[in-house]
Write a structure and sequence with these properties.
43% of the residues lie in helices and 17% in strands. It has twelve helices and 15 strands. The strands form four sheets. It has a seven-stranded parallel beta sheet, with helices on both faces. It binds NADP nicotinamide-adenine-dinucleotide phosphate and guanosine-5'-diphosphate-alpha-D-mannose.
């Protein structure tokens, strides 16, 4: 039985990766931060049995606390360490740039050092959650492993350090350390302040009669959106390779935020009619004329990433990885999952914060 340690296990990818590895019979350990309210709702939903049985174990630690990382890594001595923990919101990184650098950049270094200092450099394989945000103001399209980086946010810059320190430890110490350069991936466990989940939740509420206006930022931003479950399968494949290396995981398809809105509301039978431009653009229910979407400039980023489109050919050729779930299906499933959740919340008068 292999042992894996996942940082960021309470997040979207961490929860799906834990599920995936548990199904492969791994012993899974997660690093969690202490929170004043329970924050393991994703794990409870999809790994509840294993949490109870002890096949999934949680250890307190924090990426900005080297001592805790040394202790947990020494204690678990994992075969595989997946570093998924991060302050992962791009706009928030402009509000908390120093913390983001510390956790997302130096955090990766702390983990690599903890592996080394515990004498595990030849045992523990390391995966770093790198990101398409590294390409930022893209210098070519589509973006591949050979495309130069040009990050556009404190988040992107912090992740740039995480990327290179992973490469450096691989080269300097012969560690099995790899980067997955992942393009956006979504699903029903996505955090609610990322644009896809914000939209799917708003569509679900609209269908159930809660007709509040959805305020969004840049509708013209374009992303290469895939399904998170396909991407955690790719993370695992990267770590299983004989030689460590860096891989882009992407769908190779691009869609705008506006298209996401169209499809999400289409899933509940509402056609959106767009009018106006820039900050005055409005999306209405074509049938009733009700306003569904408005622009709120506070969601604009000081420096935006206009377009991300990945070239996943290396992952296909070397790992045999490709995304499976198609974009329209992903959007529809997210809306349906949010509808089911909203119905349950309403029917049982549940505390939203604990449930979502
Ligand atoms: P997420 O849902 O925001 O989860 C982030 C996780 O990191 C949470 O478990 C969070 O814990 C934890 N965390 C944050 N700061 C920490 C700290 N200082 N110490 C320990 N844990 C900390 O993110 P995600 O979407 O699953 O993404 C996973 C990773 O992939 C991130 O590194 C992200 O930057 C990267 N990535 C994501 C995408 C994507 O499209 N999802 C694409 C490319 C790369 P709490 O629950 O306590 O907040
Ligand atoms: N969050 C958000 N909220 N984004 C909005 C909104 C809004 O109301 N309106 C428009 N957008 C635009 C953003 O400006 C951005 O261009 C795009 O929608 C996607 O935003 P997010 O969903 O916040 O994701 P992201 O692309 O910035 O970052 C995600 O993907 C990266 C990989 O490319 C995160 O998961 C990062 O952690 C990840 O590295």
């Amino acid at each position: 039985m292999k042992t894996a340690l996942i940082t960021g296990i309470t997040g979207q990818d961490g929860a799906w990766l834990a599920r995936y590895l548990l199904d492969l019979q791994y012993e899974v350990h997660g690093l969690v931060r202490r929170a004043s309210s329970p924050n393991i709702h994703r794990l409870s939903r999809i790994c509840g049995d294993e949490l109870n049985s002890g096949q999934l174990r949680l250890n307190y630690g924090d990426l900005i606390d080297a001592g805790s990382l040394n202790r947990v890594i020494g204690h678990v001595a994992p075969d595989e360490l997946y570093n998924l923990a991060a302050q992962s919101h791009v706009l928030v990184s402009f509000e908390t740039p120093e913390y983001t650098a510390n956790a997302d950049g130096v955090g990766a270094l702390r983990l690599l050092e903890a592996i080394r200092q515990n004498g595990l450099a030849s045992k523990t394989r390391f995966y770093q959650a790198s990101t398409s945000e590294l390409y930022g103001k893209v210098v070519e399209t589509p973006q591949s492993e050979r495309t130069p980086f040009y990050p556009r946010s404190p988040y992107g810059v912090a992740k740039l350090y995480g990327y290179w320190i992973t490469v450096n430890y691989r080269e300097a110490y012969g560690m099995h350390a790899s980067n997955g350069i992942l393009f956006n991936h979504e699903g029903e466990l996505r955090g609610e302040i990322f644009v896809t989940r914000k939209i799917s939740k708003a569509a679900a509420r609209w269908a159930l009669g809660e007709r509040s206006i959805l305020f969004l930022g840049n509708l013209d931003a374009k992303r290469d959106w895939g399904d998170a479950r396909d991407y955690v399968r790719g993370m695992h494949l990267i770590v299983q390779q004989a030689e460590p290396d860096d891989y882009v995981l992407a769908t190779g398809e691009v869609h705008s935020v506006r298209e996401f809105v169209d499809l999400a509301f289409d899933a509940i039978g509402v056609k959106i009619e767009w009018s106006g431009s820039a900050t005055n653009e409005i999306g209405r229910d074509a049938l009733s004329g009700e306003i569904v979407v408005k622009i709120d400039p506070s969601f604009f980023r000081p420096t935006e990433v206009d377009l991300l489109l990945g070239d996943p050919r290396k992952a296909l050729n070397r790992l045999g990885w490709r995304h499976e779930r198609q974009f329209p299906e992903l959007v529809k499933d997210m809306v349906m999952a949010d509808m089911a959740r909203q119905k349950l919340i309403k029917a049982n008068n549940l505390n939203l914060e604990i449930f979502i």
